[in-house]
């Protein structure tokens, strides 16, 4: 079951929504009331533009948990979808959206705040979703942008672990997840694992934390989409 959950998360990270639907359905065969799987399934349906199936799944979630915030919010949202918005939803699935927006993948991804960050004058120029680069040093890992500007360093314990893994042949990519005052939050993803470390995860986090985080990230993503749609609707009304 754990492997299926990991594969479901991986499919979402890769935006393979058809596969995500199939895997979450398999998970639900063993536990038809698995709320996490149902939330992932409903979200995948909506990303595929299968609005009726998404609504049906959100209804089931609300039967199990009538106060589920994600289901309440998105069921109402889907009820108001026009035909044009459904078409737009289908088009969105083909766009290349950075994977940091969606879900964590156990053992392969990590969300972390940098330390010793650059001054606010540099932070103010950063964009969420920008690709950044890991620069391993002797005892730390610096994070620099595409112009090689220093942004901050990873916490010591994580840096120590990744330095060893990088020396062994692992490779990683990182994106800016969020920029706050005196703080940069990164999403780091393992992109290659050397054969010698095939059974050693890059990051150690209990699966229950990933499940909780996956729900939180879906919620944040949907809220961001709502804000974008509200802005677009406002622009249309002004025109």
UniProtKB/TrEMBL annotation:
<dbReference type="InterPro" id="IPR011990">
    <property type="entry name" value="TPR-like_helical_dom_sf"/>
</dbReference>
<feature type="compositionally biased region" description="Acidic residues">
    <location>
        <begin position="223"/>
        <end position="239"/>
    </location>
</feature>
<feature type="repeat" description="TPR">
    <location>
        <begin position="35"/>
        <end position="68"/>
    </location>
</feature>
<dbReference type="InterPro" id="IPR019734">
    <property type="entry name" value="TPR_rpt"/>
</dbReference>
<keyword id="KW-0802">TPR repeat</keyword>
<feature type="region of interest" description="Disordered">
    <location>
        <begin position="219"/>
        <end position="239"/>
    </location>
</feature>
<protein>
    <submittedName>
        <fullName>Uncharacterized protein</fullName>
    </submittedName>
</protein>
